[in-house]
Design goal:
single chain; 469 residues; alpha+beta; Glutamine Phosphoribosylpyrophosphate, subunit 1, domain 1; 2 domains; 7-stranded antiparallel beta sheet
């Protein structure tokens, strides 16, 4: 994770596996996807007659103790880890969302992404139910599915999905069946896996298949709805596919042990470092990476440049989302809450520091200052993606344009602001080249401002405070 990369969106995990411990499988699947959302987590299970949902604010391991997992019995379930991109941070917005359905069965739903026509969809919802009202696009979609006149949830999903605009990977379930769907552009990932005992898994990333011992079968295709029940897996195409996977998944969002578009993410990041060394060499004594995504690219940079690779920054592995606010004295330490320099390794050295991105620039500035205070003679920043100049409307907290340091500053001006001796970004062409996939198979909007899914004029990107990394 870079010093100030955007927060992730959400993670999804679904399972249909009679005879297995569904809640426990879902717990471990969500645990593997914790990097995609640290604000809330939830699990819904069903046994053929009813749906039981448990969700709360916090990390997966904090919420789901043995005592809370025990009542979650059934043969199918879905789980969700959330970082809020729309809707405020509160319990009502934790997922999966649950709605009793007019057809007699309930609907539980989890969503990764962000819709751009939420206002229009909300106007179609007839009844939002009693109690505190959730404010998410996910809650609205769950209500639309529950109120849909179709006889079964599969038809309701197939007829509702084409009405949605924006980015979405959905998992949904009733008492007997698990469903997965991706928007026609496939902006957010979703994969299918198979358990050795014959059960099925749906997950945001392949790393969640690994943790439960499932084998990768295939991706859910853009514009596809998959249905899993006692008859196995069925497929239904509800829209013409036009693949536009979020390119930032390779840069930062996905775990390094996951596979996207057939490529291991760690290997792609190492290649980003190799290409950076070719495009923007530097005279230095040591190459270091900013944890967690930087070291892989730093290794690639060192390989091509011939400059030794070493560890120069240690990450506190146990700093996640906390509800305990630091004192002003500790808050002033800023980045040191999560990252700390190895003084002996960097003292009197000229450093190449490889990071995944610069968003606002504040934390990168702190990082450079921290390295200099620790004795670094020179700090040469190398970033594994192009400047982020445009906000994201599809489910990543990428600030507003005014908050993006690269939106109106040239690279040299950013270098001066963060205090580095040199600064270079990887070109968009090289970033795409490293993935091994065609440029037109990605959403690159945060880099080039070309949005594959139309954005209504009154739509705003999520206005949330970027996480200090």
């Amino acid at each position: 994770m870079g010093t100030e990369s955007p927060r992730e969106e959400c993670g999804l995990f679904g399972v249909w596996a009679p005879g297995e411990e569904i809640a426990r499988l879902t717990f471990f699947g969500l645990y593997a996807l914790q990097h995609r959302g640290q604000e809330s987590a939830g699990i819904a299970v069903a046994d053929g007659t009813g749906i039981l949902v448990d969700k709360d604010m916090g990390l997966v391991a904090q919420i789901f103790t043995e005592r809370r997992l025990a009542p979650l019995q059934g043969h199918l379930g879905i789980g969700h880890v959330r970082y809020s991109t729309t809707g405020s941070s509160r319990w009502e917005n934790a997922q999966p969302s649950f709605k009793p359905a007019a057809r007699g069965s309930g609907v539980a739903l989890g969503h990764n992404g962000n819709l751009t026509n939420t206002r229009e969809l909300a106007a179609r919802v007839k009844h939002r139910g009693p109690g505190p009202r959730a404010t998410t696009d996910s809650d609205i979609v769950a209500s639309l599915l529950a109120e849909h006149p179709a006889d079964d949830l599969e038809d309701a999903i197939a007829e509702t999905m084409p009405q949605l605009r924006g980015a979405y990977s959905f998992l949904a379930m009733d008492e007997r069946t698990v469903y997965g769907a991706r928007d026609p552009y496939g902006v957010r990932p979703l994969v299918v896996g198979r358990l050795a005992g014959g059960g099925w898994i749906l997950a945001s990333e392949t790393c969640a298949l690994d943790i439960v011992g499932a084998s990768y079968v295939r991706d859910v295709e853009p514009g596809e709805l998959v249905t899993i029940d006692e008859r196995g897996l069925r497929s239904r195409i509800f829209a013409k596919p036009d693949p536009k996977l979020c390119l930032f998944e390779f840069v930062y969002l996905a775990r390094p042990d996951s596979v996207l578009y057939g490529r291991n993410v760690h290997e792609v990041r190492r290649e980003l470092g190799r290409l950076l060394a070719q495009e923007s060499p530097a005279e230095a004594d040591l190459v270091i990476g900013v944890p967690d995504t930087g070291p892989a690219a730093a290794g690639g940079f060192a390989e091509i440049s011939g400059i030794p690779y070493g560890e120069g920054i240690v990450k506190n592995r146990y700093v996640g989302r906390t509800f305990i606010q630091p004192t002003q004295t500790i808050r002033q330490l800023g980045i040191r809450l999560k990252l700390n320099p190895l003084h002996e390794a960097i003292r009197d050295r000229r450093l190449v520091v490889v990071d995944d991105s610069i968003v606002r620039g504040n934390t990168t500035r702190q990082l450079v200052r921290m390295l200099r205070e620790s004795g670094a003679r020179e700090v040469h920043l190398r970033i594994t993606c192009p400047p982020i100049r445009w906000p994201c409307f599809y489910g990543i907290d990428m600030a507003t344009r005014a908050e993006l340091v690269a939106s109106d500053l040239a690279v040299e001006e950013i270098r001066q602001y963060v205090g580095a001796d040199s600064l270079a970004y990887l070109s968009l062409a090289s970033l795409v080249k490293a993935t091994g996939s065609p440029p037109d198979h990605f959403c690159r909007a945060c880099f080039d401002g070309i949005y594959p899914i139309s954005i209504p004029e009154d739509t705003e990107a999520p206005k949330l405070v970027l996480e200090e990394r």
